[in-house]
Amino acid sequence: MARLLVIGCGGVAQVAIQKCCQNHKTFEEIIIASRTLSKCDDLKAKIEATDCPVKITTAGVNADDKEDIVKLITKFKPDAVLNVALPYQDLTIMDACLECKVDYIDTANYEPEDTDDPKWREVYEKRCQEKGFTAYFDYSWQWAYEEKFKEAGITALLGTGFDPGVTSVFVAYAKKHYFDQIDTVDILDCNGGDHGYPFATNFNPEINLREVSANGSYMENGKWVETKPMEIKREYDFPKVGKKDMYLLHHEEIEALGRNFPEIKRIRFFMTFGQSYLTHMKCLENVGMLSTVPVEHDGHLIVPIQFLKTLLPDPASLGPRTVGKTNIGCIFTGKKDGKDKTLYIYNVCDHQECYRELGSQAISYTTGVPAMIGTALVVEGIWKKPGVFTTDEFDPDPYMDMLNKYGLPWVVDENPVLVP
Ligand SMILES: NC(=O)c1ccc[n+]([C@@H]2O[C@H](COP(=O)([O-])OP(=O)(O)OC[C@H]3O[C@@H](n4cnc5c(N)ncnc54)[C@H](OP(=O)(O)O)[C@@H]3O)[C@@H](O)[C@H]2O)c1
């Protein structure tokens, strides 16, 4: 039975924590720690009203401050730390875990809050030149902890959300059970949900808007090919959702899969967007509202994208009003027993069913469930070994079983329509 410290109490954390409570054979105590203590206390009250046997404790924490996290870990002595705050905090939380020799789990790879920081910028510019993609986030910062985690005998499991997370497990599962050789992977993320607002993001607006307004890229024959934002568009008829326009984006699992499965000749990632979302985003970008660089307004410094976040609906509040389904999965081509083979593994998740079960929309749900599953596999010792890993580096079978058990059942289609 494990004691878990969860850092962050937003949309994803709320699902992950409630799912840990459903898995009370693994988790006996959860310490919920975040910047806004009242959110942690509200969630504790909600869980305690359900007669959940898991002990819940709450605390305030500034996860940008390593010493603050170390104090928390020293006080509560958790077996593992699940970071579902923001990617900005990944390194401080990893440093604290290292100091206290506690396992670390997250759902998104590191990116800096201040992309104008000259120290970060120097490393970034070098990486852009060497690797050929310009996204602000990449795995190099966290992979650099490999030796330190090995020496400390602790595990870091990176990116156990849906994408990355489940999509990477789908690749490991396809390779283990269906292919001798995978040639191409297309990761398709479709959100067919409608929340009724003219514009809102389904998870943290700052992280979401940074991701979709950046250049796209994909990996071909081990090299990055970069595109302009939204340059490559395809239409796909998604099972249980229907026809949607989708656009090629840079996405973090491409980097890890490219490293761990060098045989794969091409890895692409597509996400669906409606025209209204794209028009709003372009307009906000054109007027400077997506900028992370502070500007002076009436004698105060404000960061435009953070101000925009204040104006937009809280993603955690979209649950009651979002209807429709998500469909996220991977389409593979390759060879089995010398013959050509294609395969599609996907999950369909219904926004309203998620809301009825946990009070959340499907984007938080599809991230929070795998966050719990990855954490459970680490604390149970099934996915535990010293070092820094992504989810495609372990046996996929126990993870796939838990997806079925905890609300994200998957489908295997051996005759899918391919993406041109
Ligand atoms: N892999 C995937 O499929 C996937 C998909 C979606 C999201 N994600 C990732 O999941 C994570 C959470 O997303 P979300 O939508 O739940 O975001 P969110 O709703 O904005 O929640 C973030 C939480 O972190 C807390 N926080 C932020 N800065 C903090 C700090 N310095 N110290 C302590 N707590 C801090 C926030 O506190 P306040 O309440 O005070 O704001 C909030 O509770 C993000 O890293 C996101 O990139 C991954």
CATH superfamily of the largest domain: Dihydrodipicolinate Reductase, domain 2
Largest sheet: 9 strands, mixed
Q: Assign the CATH architecture of the largest domain.
A: 2-Layer Sandwich
CATH domain class name of the largest domain: Alpha Beta
Categorize the overall geometry: globular
Please, how many domains?
A: 2
Structural class based on helices, strands and sheet pairing: alpha/beta
Strand content: 25-35%
- CATH topology annotation of the largest domain: Dihydrodipicolinate Reductase, domain 2
Low-confidence stretches: none
Span between termini: 48 Å
Question: On the 0-100 scale, what is the average pLDDT?
Answer: 95
Count, helices: 15
Bound compounds, each kind once, are: NADP nicotinamide-adenine-dinucleotide phosphate
- Helical content class: 25-40%
Radius of gyration (Å): 20 Å
Number of DSSP-assigned strands: 18
